[in-house]
Structures are given as structure tokens and as C-alpha cells.
Amino acid sequence: MKVACVGGGPAGLYLSILLKRQDPSHDITVHERNPAGSTYGWGVTYWGGLLERLRQHDPESARAVEGNSVRWTEGVAHIGDRTARHRGDEGFGIGRRALLEILAERAESLGVRVTFDHEIDAGDPPDADLVVAGDGVRSALRDAHADHFGTEVTEGRNRYLWLGTTKVFDAFTFAFVETAHGWIWCYAYRYGDDRSTCVVECSPRTWEGLGLDWASEGDGLALLEELFADVLDGHRLIGRGQSGDSARWLTFRTLTNRTWYRGNLVLVGDAAHTTHYSIGAGTTLALEDAMTLAAVLRGAPHLAPALARYERQRKEALLPVQSAARYSAQWYENLPRYVGLPPHQMFALLGQRHSPLLPHIPPQVYYRLDRTAEHLKPLRDLKRWLGPRLARTGG
Fold this sequence. Notes:
The chain has 14 helices and 16 strands. The protein is α/β, with parallel strands linked by helices.
């Protein structure tokens, strides 16, 4: 089979690896529009379950990913001058550039052609048996047939900014700072020996009140360094990533598609779906798309039924993740509802932010019920029964 993967992100690169491992006779090319070594973002997160699946699918790339990752087992929340620390599941961070280099090198070692600085014309897609659109949330290949795919985009309310920092955090860190214009907060995590990612978020009112809507890049970073001085310990925030572009304030775009394929064109990764960054699942979902697509193509005599099976399986797997992401985003959009709680209670509800029940119950009541449910089976069962039903109705 001749395969063209448009977009050199995790989904396209990993799919090329898996297909080559299944059948070395596949003719596979990955087309990346950016130059080699140029990528957006800083570090990405994933959890132990993904690492185990990577080992099952391609042990060699899994070893390289693990060897270039850092890990943490604790979360810390700073709320004004109060701090709460919680031990949780083991998490991992890896630089996005490092991840893409690992996958590209592994793909090339298997005989995949990886081309950089090569823009594909959406009106003239590659001549291949299968064209994989892994060209991101603003996919040109998908948008050329937007009516067919039924693409829908929902804009989030809050503003966010993706930054780097030389501060090396020892735990996944949340910091909430109150200003005269409302709360502003960051999520920060280490992804290397000398770097961390720092995502800053706030409401539109706070963003405008602080003057971040018109501040220059330098002035904006200086203000954020001042606001988060306690957690940064004198370290700087970095706005320009490896792509050379300056960081921009954005609103998160939740993207869905009614269908994921058209003829021999199939969507993967952010071209097919996005989930709010606050649950840290984007890279994992992209790699899982590749795993599922490779599995349904293995030995498939006809393309259309295989792509239909891929779409069905991935949509089903995404339902709970999309629900968790939606409620997580809403939790932050309604931060004043929770931020006045004692630190240990707020941190507990921060961990429960993906729950469909939480928006419907006063926070302190939910906290007490949740603690009680840990010891009473009937309450645990009620919570498990009611939560998915509220999630399916959108809350």
C-alpha cells in the first residue's frame, strides 16, 4: 500500500512506524510543512498507561521516549499564600521537539521517507492509496471538504498562553494568583533537565483588566513573571519557542467532526478532534489514533470498512475523554465558585474537575459527599451511575 501522511506530528509519524512494522513493503511518506527541528509548544505530558501501550506496539521507540522523559508523582497547588500537596498517579513530561525527533528517526530507520519544508496543496493531495490528514486543528485537507466531515468548532471563554521557563518544577504545579481584576493561574510541569512548560490562563475580564490584551510581548511576560514570582523563584518566562514564533494569547478551540474519512482520506490527531489542554491528553490521543488505525488496516482487504471501523472505535473511546475535558474547562471558567475553599478542599475538587456531578452540587457539599463515598459503597455506586448519565446530556 502507498501511504501519504500529511503532517509530521505524533499521529502521522507513529502511524508510519506501525504500518512499516506490519508490512515493510508499504511505501510511506510523511510530508511536514515546517523545517526540520521547528515545532510549536514546549513540553507535553502523558501517563504510565500510554508508555505501556507504546512498549506493546514498538518497544524501540518506547525506550527512546521513556529515556528522554522526566516523571513526577506529586501535584502542588498554590492558592495565594496557601499551599496543598497531593501524591497522585505517576506522570511524564517530554519536550515536543524531542518526541518528534525520536519518532522521525525511528520512522526513517524503518524505511519511511520523512520530508520537511514541504507544503501540500489541499486541492492536489498526494497520489496514494491512503492519505492521512495529520495536519492539525486547522487542517487544510479537512477544510477542503468541511461539509462532508461536518467540522464543528466551539471557542472556549478563557484566554491562555503557552510558555516555557527555566524553572524546573519537582511536581505538577498549579498556581492561582488573585489580582485587582480577578484570578489568573498557571499550570507548570517539567519536561527536561533545565526546562518546564508554563501555561497561563485567565478570564477575559482579567486579561483585559491587566492590560494583557494590548501589552507587548516583553511587557506581558514581565507582568506575568511578577504575578508568579513566588513559584518561579526568580526564573524567567520564555515566549519564543523552537519555531521562533512569539507566544500568543488564544482561546481554546474544541473541534469535532461528524465523520473522520472521505474516500481514501482519513483524519488523525488534532485534525479529527481536540480536547482541552487542562487534562493533558492531546499527544496521547494522537498516538492512540495511530495505534487504532494501524490495527484496522492490518490485513484489511478493503479500505472503506477499515476506515469506518477506525472511526467507530476511536469515537467510542473518546467519549469519556471529551466529557472530562469539557467539564475540566468549565471548572476553570467558573473558578470563583471553588477558589475560596480551604486549600485541601479546593485541591480535592481540582482533581475532581472532570466530574459531571460537580457543577450541580455546592462545592463544599460535593467535597463532603465525595469523602463519604470513599467509605460507603451505596454512595460510590450512585456516583458511578449518575455521573455518566449527566455527561451524556452535556451537564
